[in-house]
């Protein structure tokens, strides 16, 4: 069966000697699923079982179990190789948008230059071809084309040319925090267009991991209020605690009604551990805080450069559209101009999308982040309730502590372990029993 990566990570973090409850709490997964995955992992890598006299079970796995799995399964090696290949492919995909932008600008303005040169050399004949668009060619040549030349560093007004970049770099070097990220220019273009993915992509995994650790922290017995800061609750739950049902299902918990009629939640299997002082091993946040979406991880300079290049590309496409007119001049000149004319609508669509997509994303993110802030605020309210408990809540918290506890599977109290032969263990057990009886007899005498 396919082994769960979260289980393997949990085993490594917990020191390779674990119980089902340890893994379920650390990985934030269903207790039954954690048990199945742990059994499968122990079977595949030659792990051992340790059974305490109380009947609780600990699993001991070799520290190099990942190496054992890689040697055993070709599929795992292929997955790792594919991940490396995909990283390269995805980088090429991201870089292609920036490359296409540069190519688009170059093609558009080379075609514009060719048309303007042809119009200049042909003189008055140009007025009889190409329609009304070509009659405005001189105006574009005088007013627009020099600005394009300045943009790429041909005059004093350049602001994004090589010297401008060096000037900004020198000013930035005086600031040790000049760079917000490690994106290069091509990656910055992709980030400007499409963003950098959902910052809360693993939110559900994180949620269940925190809830599992919270239950462990309170030694397997909690109230609904103690887990509310990690869940998405309605503004007015009306006293209902139905939101605890998924938690009970995942961690095999049991609701318990106290003498005062309050409900607390008991998780016996998360009380069994193979580690000492487990509840203080991992710190957990006060609330489950969702991260707000950033428009782009690109630096402000990269974003401004992307906007400027996108604007140049779009205006250049409109200028070329005017010069091409009905397409007669492209047929006459042929070559590059004809080629650009044949893909003109693709270039124009890219120019519109390059500016339109980020603009649409910007307004979409305003709504997304507003909802994220509302959810974080709601969780914070539940955390404040827990920090300033009412007398009723104090009573519930005290009742929950009555069910709290921790069963430690000690290696000195094992009834059985698969590491040793059964006969050898029976002999050791017999010696242990004899020693216990001798101790009792000496105490009575």
TrEMBL record:
Domain of life: Bacteria
Matches recorded under PANTHER family: OS02G0533000 PROTEIN
Residue ranges crossing the lipid bilayer per the database entry: 88-119, 303-323, 343-365
Alphabetized InterPro entries for the sequence: At5g03900-like
Compositional bias ranges of the Basic and acidic residues kind: 165-181
Region (Disordered) residue spans: 160-181
Protein name (Swiss-Prot/TrEMBL): Uncharacterized protein
Keyword Transmembrane recorded: yes
Keywords assigned: Membrane, Transmembrane, Transmembrane helix
Organism of origin: Candidatus Synechococcus calcipolaris G9
